[in-house]
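To start, an entry.
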Amino acid sequence: MLNGVCKVRQRIGTIAAVVAVCGAVAACGSSSSSSSTGSSSSAAAATSGSGASSTSSAVTKAQATVAALYKGTDRALPTGGPKAETGKKVWVISCYEGAVGCSVPAQGFVAASAHLGWKATVVDAKLDPSTATQEIKSAVAAKANAIVLDGFPCSWAPGAIATAKAAGVKIYGLLSFDCSGKALDDGQLLFGKETYEQYLEDQVGAGIAAYIVDKTDGKGNVLSMQYNDGGAVNAIGHGIETGIKQNCPGCTFSSFAVTGQNIVQNQLQSLTSSALTKDPNASVVTSPIDSAILLGMGSAVTQAEAGGRHLLLTGVEGFGPNLKLIAAGGPDNFAVGSAALWEGWAAADGLNRVFAGAPQVDAGIGLQAIDKTHPSPSGLANYNGNKRSSGYEQNYIKIWTRK
């Protein structure tokens, strides 16, 4: 569905060099991938070359990527920006308050809003486009100055968003994709010089794929949850898939489909268990969202392991409950930490720049590989950045207050 910056075969090496843009890579273009429920393919068929030498090369590249992620890839914090545009009413429409991947960025935004002199209202879209549409209409009726789309794409409610924009309401994307064709967002978080879509596929998804290649010695049989309702989770899943298929000739890849309503209706455990039964050779299970592990995928893996399976389960953001599972040895085994609370603060700064007519800037948000032997620098609380980004809250407050 989404286009990458570089050809997928370059993605793992890109992270290893901590390169944010394709300009440092020789061949650029676009790529896409697709999968269906129960689909299975051999990564060996998707790449040129085979045998021990190609597998060894893939593992070496993956190890370099993982080593860079263990060190953390946060960049410099912003050094300046506009003072607080006070007195604003902002509605944050959270993708699903029952999932930490949606609720924590919203919490960060609300905390930052208090320092900007804003009144922030958080409402729950419940992973339902029709609910998101209604909440956008409610925000307009409440005379909000801005609407923040937290974790769901513009494609869920393009008509309502366009109507809000026409009414003079500012639209800001917090971990959200703008509409294709005619852009509607007034601003979005920046991740280096990449768009959010590119960052998710080329950095997050590819980073997870590299970890799998490294820890399975290039021989992982990967079963991936694929989110079929679009947006960021879908993009991460595609990044994992292309990373495995294009960079691991000794791996296999299969997937099972999940929708937003499957998550809301507590069907993740049964769907994951069914997929594991259909794929008895799977040795790795990937979730493109930490919340899915907490809402059923982790239980399905625990059940399978009780029956004699040995599985590596990988997640994404590094939320507190997931980090506790990682520290305990499972069922969750890995997170490529992304500071969700910081993302909320950065979105507040980005929206303040929109109000002030100032350009968006890179927030400096990178990634941090976390497993049992490489614990989070944030301890067992939600991952919140590494040493390079320490004190980001006070940095923003200083910018907004000029103190």
Q: What stands out?
A: The chain has a mean pLDDT of 88. Residues 8 and 242 are 6 Å apart (CA to CA). DSSP finds 13 helices and twelve strands in the chain.
